[in-house]
């Protein structure tokens, strides 16, 4: 991570869905908000990290996470598009604690599903906390953290009921 944080330019982000879960239902995946950026704690294209330097990516985190959740839902079988209830999200925390001999990843997202009239059908926070080797594939670990968070959403019977 230290080598990445020393870079002066942005780092390209790519996401490939990889869940082996099976899902069903349909949803419109709309905007996600990146609260740490809105609160001025980080830049919109930055994941907060504890080591020296900044990790700046070529895409804003709200768009990247939204697209990743969209891809995971579609990959497991949820019909995503212009039909179904509306899924939005608030990324409350995305932290890479890379001080020390390992890396702690924290991702906390509030997911909200509303029907066409605006009634809230689902409103819960899903948190993912994991630890990886300091010299692991950073992009693989980043993608895995997002995938695990999306899987927590998919495992929730209240969410599956909200998108049926």
What does this structure look like?
The chain is 29% helix and 35% strand. It starts with a helix and ends with a helix. It has helices spanning 2-5, 35-38, 61-76, 138-155, 157-162, and strands spanning 26-34, 46-49, 55-56, 79-80, 85-97, 102-114, 120-133. The longest helix has 18 residues, at 138-155. By secondary structure, the protein is α/β, with parallel strands linked by helices. The radius of gyration is 16 Å and the shape is globular. Strands 1, 2, 3, 4, 5, 6 and 7 form a 7-stranded mixed beta sheet that branches. It is built from 5 helices and 7 strands, in the order αβαββαββββαα.
The percent of residues in helical segments reads: 25-40%
Biggest sheet details = 7 strands, mixed
Poorly predicted tracts of residues: 1-8
Global morphology? globular
- Strand tally: 7
Instruction: Enumerate how many helices there are, as a single number.
Output: 5
Alpha carbon gap, first and last residue: 41 Å
């Amino acid at each position: 991570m230290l080598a990445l944080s020393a870079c002066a330019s942005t780092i390209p982000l790519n996401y490939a869905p990889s869940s082996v879960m099976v899902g069903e239902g349909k949803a419109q995946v709309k905007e996600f908000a990146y609260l740490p950026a809105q609160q001025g704690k980080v830049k919109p294209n930055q994941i907060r990290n504890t080591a020296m330097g900044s990790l700046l990516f070529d895409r804003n985190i709200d768009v990247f996470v939204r697209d990743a959740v969209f891809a995971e839902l579609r990959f497991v079988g949820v019909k995503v598009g212009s039909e179904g209830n509306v899924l939005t999200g608030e990324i409350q925390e995305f932290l890479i604690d890379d001080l020390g001999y390992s890396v702690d990843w924290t991702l906390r997202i509030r997911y909200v599903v509303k029907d066409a009239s605006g009634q809230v059908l689902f409103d819960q926070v899903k948190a993912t906390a994991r630890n990886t080797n300091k010299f692991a594939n950073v992009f693989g670990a980043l993608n895995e953290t997002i995938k695990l968070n999306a899987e927590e959403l998919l495992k929730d019977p209240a969410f599956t009921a909200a998108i049926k």
